[in-house]
Write the structure tokens for this entry.
Amino acid sequence: MATVINMPRLSDTMEEGVVAKWLKKVGDKVEEGDILAEIETDKATMEFESFHEGTLLHIGIQEGETSPVDQLLAIIGEEGEDISALLSGKTEAPKKEVAEAPKAEPTTEVAEKTPAKTAAIPEGVQVITMPRLSDTMTDGTVASWLKKVGDNVEEGDILAEIETDKATMEFESFYEGTLLHIGVQEGETTPVDSLLAIIGPAGTDVSAIISGNITASSAATSEKTEEKTVEKEVEVSKSESTHSTSNTSNGRIFASPLAKKIASDKGINLSDVNGSGENGRIIKKDIENYTPAAKPAEVVKQEKAAAPVMNFVANGEESSEEVKNSQMRKAIAKSLGNSKFSAPDFSLNIEVDMDNAMASRSVINEIPDTKVSFNDMVVKACAMALQKHPQVNTSWTDNNTVYHKHIHVGVAVAVEDGLLVPVIKHTNMLSLTQIGAAVRDLAGKARNKKIAPAEMQGSTFTVSNLGMFGIDNFTSIINQPNSAILSVGAIVEKPVVKNGQIVVGNTMKLTLTCDHRTVDGAVGAQFLQTLKTFIENPVTMLA
């Protein structure tokens, strides 16, 4: 059955979009996750991927044309399927290709929008499904609901905080009305496109929609959960009614999970923070805007004097704790497991003389407003070496080896829940200072969980650096679909032989892990030799 794809709302302020480029044409096969088009919003040009599979039967907006959100963008279905009814239901004349969006016909939109309307959906009711908030997300966990059943919802309000495989992200409403139903409780995990919530006019009966989306057994469970949630909310509202301007009740501090996590990361005591959320609830912006008040010297002195001296006593007890795996850890485990068990890899090691690099970096960093790290120099050298050895800048598929003409270097960044790989696009075209600025910006976003999925996609090679932790040598797992990953160790001062004399020198060990399906040993060795030349002679990277 054909699926109608509408112009998506790709930003919170987007009212219309421009199709910058179609990456599929009518008649092409489309797989779920394929990029259909590049769409220019009011903020950026973004890749728009398909959430459906089939054949592209119709394009409703041509390249360069502008269309309001929710207008017909494309139709996907089975090859040869008759879509004349869909087209005639939305065009004013048979020859007119682009017209107003269907008003009576059912439509199916991307996950951020509602599923296809049917006769069972009352007027003004919007069904919200679990959105796909990253390119690899298959299911999501509701970390926190910021609205409860019965609350009024405005377009742009944050409905919930959703944990994906990469970050905990705020999910905002694209509709207004009353929150009539919550389909996924806090802490629960559900697949993408599952029923998340229902918004519509107050008092609307949505029981038919609920029964149509979930099984009878799960419906009963959901109803029981909602009853418990309502009871809990009544208890909380009673306790909060006497503390309308406070974020505490009977010693309990009311704060969103995301706010609690950020506060823990920053070492902030939640009891010191004033909440601006509903009923004084502490939310993310309260933590981000919090400035601790300085304590009087006398108070600090008294606190130190009163601090008890703790004696260590080993009681011999054994205990364990099970911590639920986050979506990010699940994604890392799946990705690295697939890489390790599917790619026949091998590793090559080389030691690099860093004396010239250290001297050059000191000179460069003397320039005002300039900051270049050794890692930036390694990333730049990798990009230049990839130009000379295109076999390393490849990806393996079952039928082909894909040679990437562009060079996008991913830089592994450690975050609290795991590892993220921001991507420096067109790295070979950037200077050392530009690479340094880009790495710092993306690494900061990754650690603060503000990095966009598009900023972690498309790498053709990856660099992982543990030198700052004092690790001399290690081997990384390939970040597929890359063909290789470079592991960077610490700079070590030690005796070395130069011109037949033993002197004190500075060296750094590099390990290149390669996919043997695309990169042979000799190719990997030649790449490392070129990389060594660039790093040992930094002047070659300044041209």
User: Anything to note?
Assistant: Residues 90-119, 213-245 have pLDDT under 50 and may be disordered.
